[in-house]
Amino acid sequence: MRVLAYLKNIIMGQCASCLDTTNQGDSGRGPKRKKGRKNSIMGGINVSHSPAHNSNRRSKKVKRIGKDDFKIHKVIGKGSYGKVYLVERLEDEAILASTVHQIDLSHLSSMSGLQTIQQANLPQLKQPSGKFFAMKCMKKSTLYQTDQVDTVRSERDILAQMDHPFTVKLYYAFQTATKLYLIMEFVNGGELFYHLKREQRFSEDRVRFYAAECVLAIEHLHGLGIIYRDLKPENILLDSEGHIKITDFGLSKTGQIKEGSETYSFCGTPEYLAPEIIAGTGHTKSVDWWSLGLLIFEMVCGFHPFKIKNKSHYEKFKIIQDTSQEVQIPHYVSPQMKSLLQGLLQKDSINRLTVDKIKTHEFFSSITDWDVVQRRELTPPYIPTVSSDTDISNIDRYFTRELPEETPEESLKLKALGKEREIKDAKFEGFSFNNEKEQDKLRQTTDTRTQIGIDLSYQ
Length: 459
Prior knowledge:
- It is built from 15 helices and twelve strands.
- The chain is α+β, with helices and mostly antiparallel strands.
- The chain has two domains: 2-184 and 430-447, 2-Layer Sandwich (Phosphorylase Kinase, domain 1), CATH 3.30.200; 192-374, Transferase(Phosphotransferase), domain 1 (Orthogonal Bundle).
- Strands 2-3-5-7-6-12 form a six-stranded antiparallel β-sheet, with helices on both faces. Strands 1-4 form a two-stranded antiparallel ribbon.
- The two termini are 32 Å apart.
């Protein structure tokens, strides 16, 4: 509000000491514009008295986003090569610039000699915006050491092209000398794994709802030539309304446009690997339908369909590949669900159900129009308890109790094969991303909503 009041005073001529109308260029008292920044107004406002600026058009030039534009509040996730934080966007020059363009300047036409407002010494404030995100932070050195550089780059590229109601959105991607950052939507209903662990198993109606939304998300990925390869309860989030959001695309394979095209990478979560991935004989998009079968089984039964608990990876793989061991489905599972599971958990991928057969299967007979599912118009069978946009009570305390401190920037060198070498950034060229479409939607949402305080009482 202080910034808006300041702008108003400038426009109305009540802060004459802050204005320089003599067209002194960069010699005014305002701080100089930093090299490389476009549309920065901290060094001055340049509003030509023309019809274009009398409109409410928003400036299309946006300043480069970096880690200093976000305030860390909590740790909400942790992986082998990075952490995920709950962060708040801080207002900056781009937001102030858009505010200036929304002010009606028509009354200035009577002010003799005033064609341009220049060099206004705006206060350099960074204020909380009330817009919260999930920030994934990864060390470049760790990515090189664990051979995960291509994995992270692939995830960034996939997220950048995703636009689906049941996958997480990417808003920004940027890097520093030693770290990579992905700024994604914050989904605070908790992991499906978290809820399944608490409730042991779900009703078939609830399973049907989650499975249907998963089917559409996977179908969308396949349409883009992407094999997901990591469908599991830990990678499915619930939003505050009870709908799913699939996340973590690090193991996904792109470029699989042609139907039936195979890839040979050995990757995934051991318990969820399809038999053909273990065999190394080549796999297709069908592996995602195998994982869907495992997911459905776990949701309705509360345990893995194969007896692999507490076994070594070798033993797990042997059991999963063994065609003589059929899935034993409990008696309380309905005939319709049993039929679906048997169709999905075919160890020979040729016999596995395809997406068309899944959507027309009798288990989904109550869904007469899949577009209704796509539009998020099905009523969720369960709505997470969420008190605010920043409520973290559905996130495991294993993460949230950790101090929300980012590790400091470290040396650009790492040891490899006993020798120090400089980290090369060629792999990360073009990593930055700015999702203007989703940011516009976010602005429209937050502009009409009262800002609520951050809820960090869950310790």
